[in-house]
Amino acid sequence: MSQREGNEVDLQSHSSASSFPHLEAKIRQTHSLAKLLTSYAEQLLQEYVQHQGDPFGLPSFSPPELPVSGLNSPAPTHSGLPTLERLQLDAAALNSLSLLLDTICRLQADLNPFASRLLRRLEDASHQSRALGNAVEVVLEALGAAPGPPEPHPILPESPGVFLIKLLGYRVCGLYQEWVSCTEGDLSQLMREGLG
Amino acid sequence: MEVYFYLRLLLKRGENKRMRNSSKFQWLSSVIFLYLVNQAHGQKRGVPHDLKCITHNLKIWDCSWEASYRINHGTTYEVCIVNSSYSCIQTEKTHFEIPALSLADHEIKISSTHVSGNSVTKFILSERNVSLVPATLQILNLTADFSTSTLYLKWNDNGSAFPHHSNVIWEIIVLYKEDMEVATVATFNTTLMGKDSVHHWNWTSDIPLECTAHHVKIRYYIDELHFFGQKEWSEWIPLRISGSPIKESYEVFPRDKVVPVGSNMMFCCVVEETVLTAQYGSEKCSLIPLDNKSVGIKINNITISPSSGTNVVFTTRSNLYGTVVFAGYPPDIPKKLNCETRDLKEIICSWNPGRPTGLVGPRDTNYILYERFSGRNVTYKRDEEHMNENHQLIFQMISGQERYNFTLKASNPLGGSEAVILVDITQRVYPHTPSKLNVKGINSTAIFLEWHLSGNFANINLFCEIEINSAYSGQELRNITVKGLETSSYHVSVDKLIPYTMYTFRVRCSSEKFWKWSKWSNEKQYLTMEGIPSKGPDIWREWSADGKSVIIYWKPLPFNEANGKILSYDVSYGLEEETQYLSEIPDPHHKAEIKLDRNDYNDYIISVVAKNSVGSSPPSKITSLEIPNEDLKMEQVVGIGNGILFHWNYDLNMTCDYVIKWCNSTRSEPCLIDWKKFPANSTGALIEYDNFQSGTRYNFFLYGCKNQKYQLLRSIVGYTEELAPNVAPNFTVEDTSADSILVKWEDIPVEDLRGFLRGYLFYFEKGEKGTSKIQGLESETRRSDVKVKNITDITQKTLRIVDLQGKTGYHLLLQAYTDGGVGPGKAMYVVTKENSEGLIIAILIPVAVAIFVGVVTSILCYRKREWIKETFYPDIPNPENSKALQFHKSVCEGSSALKTLEMNPCTPNNVEVVETRSAAPKIEEDTEIKSPVAVVPEEGSDAEPENHVVVSYCPPIIEEEIANAGGEEAGGSSQVIYIDIQSMYQPQAKPEEELENNSVGGAGYKPQMHLPVTSTVENIIVADDLEKTAGYRPQANVNAWNLDSPDSPRSIDSNSEVVSFGSPCSINSRQFLIPPKDEESPKSSNGGWSFTNFFQNKPND
User: Fold this and answer.
1) B339 shares its domain with B360
2) Fewer Cβ close by (within 10 Å): the C or N end of chain B?
3) Cross-chain residue pair B308–A166, CB shorter than 8 Å
4) Looking at the domain that runs over A21-58+71-194, which CATH code has it been given?
5) Predicted ipTM?
6) What pTM was computed for the model?
């Protein structure tokens, strides 16, 4: 028996018979949201690099991953964790990302005040990240799992240079894409385990 | 001592030379040499030597000397200035300080006391022996601004230490990189002012200060004019740069710098790793090594950056470092700065920022509006959504202040600019748009207009414009001045309006001292009240044709006179003593019939009154009878396109008015389309009428009015515009002779004439029928052979055309024309009669020629009769030439000659002659004599493609006598009809169409000669037989033959038979075998009389 199999969630055991369809619907809805946001996150990153100038928009552009205090990419071991634990990490990261995206939106408003579409996407992404994190938390609560401890607020360097701001934005948009995609995968896994 | 002075001299000279930039090497060599000489001399003597004095401030001299170590140890010195008030100085050191001495030479005596003994050394010292070496500076500050890569140096010149004003030369050197390359050397002059002064110097580095280490040193030189000693540079004073770059987080410099477009910049990356590539935007750059940890790139002529700046990226093996540069422009001077108020509460200053700076966000231009009198200012808050429009700032007005002096200051990281405007705000009022426009009626011609205008205009007057619009009177603008109010409600009365009229009102305002109009308010519609009709209707009357009634006409009142909706009309009439009313006539009707008898000669006064809901109009009156006018002529007039202009002479007797009425001339009585009245003093009028039609004849009648009675003054026929006649004149040929034609035509109806007839054009042209070129060609392009007669006498109705050719076809064309153009033409084709004299000549000449030929032949034959007899009929025939003796041979050979001797009885044979249709006329036309037996099909018998004719004949016998006898027999049974030539050419004075019809119908003359002559059968048989024999073969190409008789007359009928001249003949016959080709042969002769008859009667001549 693999580790993944050993971590399967029995949805029926976590909910009453009456609330099971509701839970199922909620999981499906959250999964759909995550799936939708995955595509949005990709569009956001494309939009972002278009407004930062070269070499951000070049295909060969691949900066080293800038460390963001309080938030990392999903760990390679993430997939090996129990499903609920993974969802807890997802929810915490998405909530942190909401704050980060909000900050990036403000910074970009100074740099690209006329890039209304980018600013709108960043603002939307902040709200959507929070919405998805909350939705995952609701699922976790329905499954009887307490949300994970709140992540420390991500810290950005004080008065970073403009180039660093651009890199941070690039990194945050990348993290948003990674975590939304990860959440979508985890919810998909949850659906396979519990509903299948 | 001499050496010393020499040394000093050299030193001074060397110094001067150096100051003059002379060779250093030469100077140093001299100093070293003299120093060594002096040193050797001093040691030799063992006493103080080499006394040197320097001064740092020109007040104290610091002197020292050299002494050998052996002598110096434990030695005390007494230094005395001989003949001086200064006391001697006791010292154990080898230097002393003394106040600056005068310029003269002073003897310095140094007494040295030591164990080995005492000695005294004397020196001569003067100011010239003293060197001025500036003291060390007091450096106040050397700071680096890394954001601008600028060094700021501040120091004290210690000027208070010097008694005089002196020039100072400062020299500052900046070194950079590890190998201490010179970055810059700066030299500048100042003046010591006798007190301490602080000096500043700054320098901006081409490369960021963080990129590599920088070192700064300074020295100076005091050029004291009153000091005659040696003046020297101070020592280099190294300076320490305070402040340090933030290198913890940033590796690429400069950081986020804002630079003007076109700048040249150096960027560097300070990292431990090896930098592999560098990139400015999308441009790869070559690396410039600065030191072992720093590399740089140089960018020249930087272009404007995008809003997020241009990225500068350095790449190492494992990392990526970057910075951003913002290239833009300093703010333009604000353009079109304008300050105005809309409500006298706040001032709106607007301006155009000018050229975009290319900088946004925190780097965007900051605007501050400063008011100088009040000292208040407001700051511009950027509205990103309206960046492309004019910027504006709102400044709250200050109570009691009318004049404002505004300064608009613009600044961004690259610089600043400003614009100034001084305004009297009461003259810069641009009111808001009036709103809540409302209308209240006062009476039929006046209203109240109310509106709302926000603002406090209590201190000024408002100047408002009211636009009044109506469909009838169009647009009208009225300007009014109203006292400004603190409240915002305004109302004014508007009068002189037209009753019962829908008006549209709107308002705009400005200050009395005009600056700008406000925008127009919304429109408000209002229908004014009704009023009494101001005038009676325009009336006219017409008698009926029988004179038993008069019809009174009136026109609807114009809108401005009706003053309301006209409901009905009251019509009355009567003599002076009595008046009779007709019933009330409702509005849509504008005429009424009154039964009166013109023959009564009672002049009734007819009156018409228009009524609306408010009241009745004044009556309009007209008398029933006119003043007779015996002297009346019919005139003609042509209009000017859209109307007709009339003129008349001024007549004092005409006291009322003039009336012009008109009608279509083709209409029946009573004739009235419309009328128009003109004042009594007028002398002309232009009648314009929408329904006037070009080419239509109108009758106009001009009436004058005397004592309320009208008199017909002129009767005029006219057109607004003449057109060409639309029909052709109908003409006929009345008479035709051999050389003339008489034509007659009829008038064109008036409605078809479409203008005043000016004449006729008569064209005639000689030519064949159907070949006319007259029609279809414009007169200008008609050929020269077309003759034309212009008949300008329009009363003329006939025309005789003379000098024509006899028996010749002519095309005729007659056109009528007006000033509007030439109308269509009617064409006709006529053939003139034949000229009889020519016919006689045509007969006599051939007869005379024939007689002449016969006489000549007879004479010749008579004179040569012996020779002829000998040749053709010898008394003794030559057997060799006898054909009778060749009989047997001929029998054996079966020649045809033998057949001539055969005495076969004439056995009638039946021969079926099969002829094709094309062959039929061959016989028919050739002979002109038609056999009743050999019936040749005519054109009408197309149903049978072939004709089978059974002909009885005898085989041809080629013996003249037999043939002649046969001919006579045939002639005996023939029936010949001779046609009178005159009868063939009866005048055919009919139109072409008619001619064609007649020729087909066959009722009249037929040029074809259908002559049933049986004698032609023989010819037919002969021809037919010959075709079967091997003799004659007719040529196929008949077209190639010239069949013409040059002067043969031609028939106008294409079906007429013709006889061909020049047709090929059979060897056995002189009869023409090949007939003319067809009826279209252009030169075919009429068969009535041709020479062919002579030949036919003599077939074997």
Assistant:
1) yes
2) C
3) yes
4) 1.20.1250.10
5) 0.87
6) 0.54
